[in-house]
## 1
Amino acid sequence: MIQSGEKPKVKKHIIEEWTGKIVTSLCIVLLVVTIFSMVYFVATKGLSSFFKDGINLGEVLGGSKWKPEGEPPMFGALPFIIGSFSTSILAALIAAPLGICAALLMVEILPKFGRKYLQPAIELLAGIPSVVYGFVGLSVIVPLYRDLFPGQGLGIAAGASVLSIMILPTITSIATDALAALPAGLKEGSYALGATRWQTLYRTVLPTTMPSLLTGVVLGMARAFGEALAVQMVIGNAPHIPNSLFESTSTLTSVITLSMGNTVMGSMQNNVLWTLALILMMMTFVFVFIVRWLERRAQR
Amino acid sequence: MKKSLMLVLTLILTFTLAACGQSNTSSNKSNEGSQEGTNGGNAAASELSGSILAVGSSALQPLVDQASKKFMDLNPKVSIQVQGGGSGTGLTQVSGGQADIGNSDVFAEEKLDAGPAAELVDHQVAVVAMAAVINPDVNVDNLTKDQLVKIFTGEVKNWSEVGGPDQAIQIVNRPASSGTRATFEKYALGTKTDDLEGSIQEDSSGTVKKLVGETPGAIGYLALSYLDDSVKVVKYDGVEATEENVANGTYPVWAYEHMYTKGEPNDVVKAFLEFMASDEVQNKDVVELGYIPVSKMEVTRDLDGNITK
């Protein structure tokens, strides 16, 4: 490495260059190694229920009976898959209009007040721990639904309500950034053509930013899909497909958190829980791919 | 560029391997250390040192936690870590050798296969009793075993069928894998039950208490230490769930809290387990935290549920 006799010292900027390169590559390699080993771990654990315990995939994905302690044990995870999807989609349906409207207000209608007070307030929601959301849900939303609707208040509706508040900051801040990044010329052109503010928002701003707005919604859904604690506290956790939105049911995450600690590593039930974790991870990947696809559309 | 990447990769690999190796040797060392420490201790009287890792049941965690703090005050060179994670985790880890003590609500034989379970040594440190609790607005004071079975299997769906008001029964259960549920099913119901549609399942006793107290027509079960005025305790076959009735064997819904070790424990662990069984812990912390001391029990029960006086 040392150059011939005359200049034994490596120049300072070259050292800096190399330190920078090495430090950043180290970080990246560490991240990649972590991610791949996690995927590998969950996959080997999750697949062992098929290879070692001989459960077939169709039974897990399509069966609606979950009796892990029964004779013979049954591992139908369909109620959980339905529970996970219905809560997160419902949560996104509640949160998306709220978040996007809030972003519109903050960027287009009340830019000064919105940026200064509303955005920090909404971002504050992201910092509240999920157990707090769960407890508030259990103490406020569940009794409310119990009084208003037939049933015990626990269920998909309560879960989705709690989740919608949790994912609101994600949707709002991504929507705000997207709207703020819109070139001013686009709006001015619309105004110049005689459009009102409402027409401009509805016909120009929203369609142009739609892929970015959807990115926010999908990211929000991904968070809702993976949230465990808050949902577990308000959904009731009965392993059945519910007949109404106010009947106790489970999600993938809630059944994993409820049973993982109580089962023995390597037992059939434990392996099936890992399979559920694998399904959960696959779904998260799907969400990420959807986001990438939307981003590519947004760039066009 | 390629060269640098290779360099970085090699470095990473070395570090990770080194890290793995290190953790192994360090844990070996701590074991050796504890052995040596206690050997020395025999000569210099009560100079215990070493570290203990106790993992498992969250129902037993507060007791072990509190006792371990006292033990560490008495033996400053010993460090004890108490972790939750559930009975299954505790048994797996002690069986696999990652933990020194595995805390469990159930007998190891009920969770593990016969082989690994046979290697574990049982130390029963306390008794926990459970009672069926109902929403305070339901005017039922007593439920027979038969009635409870019918309620938890879904055969009886309305309180009027068991002498209460005309109100739907809402079951607040535990997850199927829970140790608390296993105890309740085994000793109160005598049968395994399915998860009914519309039933609620919660793992934490606090949440169960809250839900039973608030939900109209709710029934659940709680350890005696969790009982207060927000829920109503019902008699089981006419017997009240009191410490006395549990101790003299008239109230059957109780279970041992186990601390398992793999094989015979080493000196530090043994000293700690002896401390757990000592009067200081049994008559103070155990009672204080709502468990029943093993020494007070006039009856004993084995794995198959046979009771001897």
## 2
Amino acid sequence: MKGLRDPELAIGVGAALIGAGLAAGATQISSEAGYSGVGPNFLPWVVGAMLALCGVLLVREALTGGYREREEPSGAATGHWAGFAWVSAGVLVNAALITTIGFILSCSLCFVLAVRGFKSAEGRLDLRPRAWLVDAAVGFAIAAPVYWMFTQLLAINLPGLTASGWL
Amino acid sequence: MIDLWHQLLQGFLTAGTPANLLWALLGCTLGTAVGVLPGIGPATAVAMLLPITSKVDPTASMIFFAGIYYGAMYGGSTTSILLNTPGESGSMVTAMEGNKMAKNGRAGAALATAAIGSFVAGTIATVLVTLFAPLVAAFAIKLGPPEYFMLMVLAFTTVSAVLGKSTLRGMAALAVGLAMGLIGIDQISGQARYTGGVPELMDGIEVVLIAVGLFAVGEALYMVLYEGKTVETQNPMSKVHMTPAEWKRSWPAWLRATAIGFPFGTIPAGGSEIPTFLSYAAEKKLSKHKHEFGTTGAIEGVAGPEAANNAAITATLIPLLTLGIPTSNTTAILLGAFQNYGIQPGPQLFDSNAALVWALIASLYIGNVMLLILNLPLVGMWVKLLKIPKPYLYAGILIFATVGVYGMRQSAFDLVLLYAIGLLGVVMRRFDFPTAPVVVGMILGPLAEAQMRNALSIGEGRWTVFLQRPGSLALLIVIVAVLVMPHFLRMRRPKT
């Protein structure tokens, strides 16, 4: 017997709650129907109900022997959360800094942090300054040409540290 | 017929300009690379490159995207034959026999039959698209909103309920996709829905964000969480060459597979998993070398599924171009690309954007030839890509994800959302939820809603409008049949 910590159960409950939330949100949307008989709030109701129903049915499956015909997930049985934290930090730091320090530097930083995570997942986390520098250089070598291709060749705006379009 | 020929010729003239040929080559090359590399597929690659739609003209970028779509199918087979982990879901079946062949020193023959089979099937399928797409468009122009709505519901049903193992998980994924599609301004009434006062949400969520989040960021997070210790082994390469006996065994398999794959691509049931499995089963049944299946590796088991895959992939362009209905992740994103140009694929497309459509179709012929060359003599080059260390590969994918998402709307808020969608992707993958319904539901949902409300306007608010028109009634019956049949068959069959 798996208790409340069963993730399958949690997903079902989550889906049901989001469905209920959608339905609650639908009450705030106008039902002004015009000629068609259904207004902009109709589909939100349907989707909310559908998701809530799916959530309830998922909960039932979770409680009665688990999800049906679920394929065994690939990889390890438990997550490597330290590596996950590194990669998450990379992505979120990138989101926080991209407009201030520019695309190239921000993405290089994201790259370095993410590489730490992936390497630690492989069991060879390397925190020596040399490894940081090498990875930063690799990240820069990927991010810079991408940036130049977008800003110089395609004239698509990406944030830079300077207004020159090169960094 | 003369007319068709003339239009195709015009298409070749447009697709054959040096600039467009270069776009096609670039797309095919990039597509092959994307197919070879694990962790990134055609849907992600096209999504990441969607920002170019703001600067590049529609014909060039559609040729480019089609090249990526195609190229990934060719490249995917290389990975699934040489590595013991399949790249694309469509090449999972190829991996079964391909791996066995490669282990027995016949990697070269497997690669050759995969590439040539893809070429044969892709070319035949393109001929069929050339012939049938205008016919379907001419027919589809007679359809009204009720029929369109029913067609879209059929697409939803097949993508979410029929293709996956669990109807329930497919439906849950579809509901999530539809909910994402609701966010933003309602097209008909101009009402804001589910924006929570966040200005960034007023324009809705970009499909790029969802696709890149689910596939690229989700894949990277899944990788770091669960697959760091997974060791991949690479099979030895051998000379890319087929003996006359192998040719003789491959030909019938390619042709049979094309016949199986093409119809599956055209109906709104998308995905290439079913036709590849069917082709594999057919080859196994018909083969004179049954003992090779699952032991030393049978060449038919590679030739068939690969060809079926390409035929189905090509055929998905028919519902996309003539009805505006995407039936796979990648075609959903291609639809997004059309929408970025303010073009709505559908029956009118063949009139209003004839030059674009025919250039796109012509570029498929050209792309197939390019890919054959890129994948046969140059296969050694692609194999080297498999040597890129995993940490650099996945961290690099995160950089490209940033470009795609940030380049679309210049919003750092989207990058946070990207991470959240990535987390959703990890959960979905871990608990075996299909992802295609999310992407298809999100992009097709708003279109289906508009058709539904238009249909109800025609019916003056009465739902019976869907029953009174023979077309929509027939489609409704098909939908019910598609939903009920599998359960019915399961009940009839005694439990084993």
## 3
Amino acid sequence: MSPAPLIAVIMLAPLVAAAGCLVSRRARVTEYLNLAAALIDFAGVLRLLPIALAGPYVFWGGYIIVDALGAWVMLSITAVYLLASLYAIGYMRQIDQPSRLHRFYALLAGFALTMLLGPVMNNVGVYWIAIELTTLVSTFLVGFERTREGVEAAWKYIVVVSAGISLALLGIVFFYWAGSLHLGPSYNLTWSALRAVAPQLNPTLALAAFLLVFIGFGTKVGLAPMHTWLPDAHSEGPAPVSAMLSGALLNTAMIGVARFISVTDATRLGLMPRTVVVVIGASSLVIAALFITRQTEIKRLMAYSSVEHMGVMTLGLGFGGPLGVAGALYHMLNHSLNKSLMFFGAGDAMHAFHTKRIMRVRHVLTAMPVAGTLWILGALAITGAPPFGLFLSEVTIMRAGLAGPNAWAVFVMLVLLVVIFAGFLNHFRAMYFGESSGTEAPAGGWKRQPGTAFWCLLPMWLAILPILTLGLWWPGVISHYFAVIASQLGGGLPP
Amino acid sequence: MLAAHLPPLAASLFSLLAITSLLLAFVMLGSRWLYEYMLAFAAQSWLIAILSAAVAYYGGYPELYGIAALTALFRGLVLPYLLLRIIRRLEIDRELHELLSPSASLVVGALLVVFAFVVSTHLGAALGLAGTVAVLALTVMLSMKLIGFLMLMVRSEVVSQILAILVLENGIFLGSQILVPGMPMLLELVILFDLLVVVACFGVLVRYLLVHAGTSSTRELTRLTG
């Protein structure tokens, strides 16, 4: 069965919703329009998953590819989109800007659309354009609240990412050039064409090209030292946007990294590209550990945790093999759900205490008993504590690393994860059980606006339950799925 | 590939156009006035359009004539016009506090070109293309990339930063015309269009910056750290 109609539905739903939001302009209508698109997309991707397993399918002039890897990334995107759309209803109603709300939902739906385009792009150049589009749409979501800090973050975001991603374009031109020496001057630069020609590519040029695309897309993934836009953008956007940026956007760039690694495996470069990937992954963990321990703002704490987890995923992809790929992709879904929960909790805390500073937030459980409980459970999960999903995926990635030639990175990863565990949870200890410093906002006096509690709490439950389930039970069907993806990616380096 | 088997006249023409484009990047580097940056960028875009047409003529890629026309239209006219509107909206028409003076940036820029030349020579030698226009194209491409990044670093006016990013893109476009003239048309079209959207987005953001941050200098954007 061809997935073409399904893809059309998945792409059209947010497009129609965005157009509808701009036309109707009524706050209540637009929030449900966007939610409907998110529901359709999530259901559509659930339906797509089993179909994609039999793929890869290539259609519409060879520009669209549906494969297991793309479908898996789309699952994480639509899951976050759905959660963020639910939460946005509660969150945005508490922000007093109803006259601009239709633009917010139009942008949110448009952002989801651009992110869903990335994983299904078969042409490497068009994939680059899809990634560029995500930046352009999300910049305005980051700056949506029009505060001084918000606009500053939006500016830094678009400049740093545009400059970084232009390196990726240069790398793609290099790949095209290297391929044109064997395939003739005009051909379609698809992922499969690139992989097929990879063994013939000139190693020097292929290495230069890979480094450029890795640095370029690595900027978008938020890998250190190209992560500088990430904490600003994540901390200044409204909470649902932060969740989308962290849980969905970074993954759409990660799929490019995964596909390019599979290309370089087929070249004559040997271990070199994978070592570069592992080193950058490890450096992201170092940066994240340093900034997490000394962090003073709630949402920046979550943002650096994203840098950490992107580093972990990159390590998984860099170690490679069936185990590394499985760990990285399991980590991707778990992280998407978990980081959404963390940003939702942070959004609630910011509404309750009217501050972003960790120092001024105390006795969270008194102010928000239910959301507070879910938030601290999420904090345990995100630091990799059992019995949550991220523990399993991190252990899997470490096992993959120990079996490979870059085993040193496993020890680095282990030490840094312990540092991050202590540093991250220390902030939560202070916020939940810390002594009053006398400057904090009053606890207990906060009441949600009527009608928003359901929308704020439902997505938090919907996030924590799967993380817990996936931590206790790694379904066999998912293992099978990852095995298929790993074999399509080439199963790592030949020995 | 095309660049390896060019008639001497074509090779000289390509070299002339590429080197003049690089010189225009240096004009931007050596000036403080935003208006001059914009003019240099427009002239550079026109040169690239001529280059596309030349490649179309000598390489036998008729579709590149279309790209040449669109490059001249979008990069040579529309983008400079949009930039001009942004410059007019600002109260400021020159860089005030650059990190590195124009003369010093010229020196650094020259060093970057040397670096780009070394890298390109190595790549060219590895591909057996030493001494051809390909090496020159690669040098110009990488130099413009590095100069764009240099401008991003040392210039703080928002218009300078937008132009720096456009120089990054111009470098890639120029190099790809010579190195991969057969690159699918659709891709180049979409990238041209994408550039237009990028500049439009930048324009809106500049307005937000002026209204909500009260500045057009990125040096003032210091609220978010750590």
